[in-house]
Amino acid sequence: MNDIIGKPTSKCKIAAGLFWADYGVLGAQVEELTAAGVDWIHIEMRDGKYMDFAAPRGGIDIVEAARAHTDLEIEVQLQMWRPSTDLYKQLADIGANLITLPLETTGEMTAQHLTYIQDLGLKIGVWAWQGTPISAFEQYVDWVDIIEYECRAPFWKPLKGAQSPHVMDPIMVTNIQRMRDMVQAAGRADEVDIMEDGGLNAGNVAEFIQAGMTVGEFSSPLLKGPNGKLKPGTGDIERAVKKLRDAMNAA
Q1: Structural domain for 162, as ranges
Q2: CA-based nearest residue to 41, from 79, 7, 1
């Protein structure tokens, strides 16, 4: 098992999201992402209550399937209303390595739940949608492994072909800079990853890296092409990872 979450390096890391995975060949896609050199697997687990503009997805079965096909760390980003400690224990038992809690819905229990997750031996993180004040993250910087700020919700817009289905608000670059400054001021620049999520691609990733992002979450750039979802065995996933990595290394 690799061990790189919460350990920023000189090179920005790739968290491969499974939002655009083809569940019919999920294992093969995870294996190809792993072989192509992504840094960890990012799974968004929804309950359909919080973020009620989209159906539930990324359940326990998806985490189990991904775990069986990779030795990379697996992050479960909970997009849920009031997640429970029972869920955290179940995720630990099936091989999750990092649980990221939603600041907007975990509310007054966030600190207690982070402690519970940490006591399970897992890494911990917090995330929120654009619009949540950046100051809301400040009290957690001293002890989490990662903070994630996600571009506006709902983020869908009608597009065709290989285009990203996300809207990237230009203000997010400044937001990442502010996150970086907050982490540096806490003296944890070498211990806390800063992630941007939603709308990143090879064309805009450089400005986020220059702003201080240490890991980007990517799904459609790695698993979606002009003809739909990328199929394993074609080399398309490997090429997609290489294209993204080349753009990141050049930043």
Answers
A1: 13-249
A2: 1
Amino acid at 245: R
Q: Residue 57 carries which side chain, given as an amino acid letter?
A: R
Total count of domains within the chain: 1
CATH of the domain at 118: 3.20.20.70
Structure tokens at 184: 């540096």
Beta strands of 135-198 (E only): which ranges? 146-150, 193-197
Q: Does residue 7 fall inside a structural domain?
A: no
Separation between Cα atoms, residue 128 and residue 208, nearest integer Å: 17
Task: Going residue by residue through the chain, which has 251 residues, state the pLDDT in tens, using 9 for 90 and above.
Answer: 899 999 999 999 999 999 999 999 999 999 999 999 999 999 999 988 887 766 677 899 999 999 999 999 999 999 999 999 999 999 999 999 999 999 999 999 999 999 999 999 999 999 999 889 999 999 999 999 999 999 875 555 555 555 555 667 889 999 999 999 999 999 999 999 999 998 899 999 999 999 999 999 999 999 998 888 999 999 999 999 999 999 999 98
pTM of the prediction? 0.94
Q: Is residue 1 part of a domain?
A: no
b/e per residue, 191-202, with b = 16+ CB within 10 A?
Answer: bbbbbbbbbbbb
d(CA 107, CA 94): 26
Q: Is residue 115 part of a domain?
A: yes
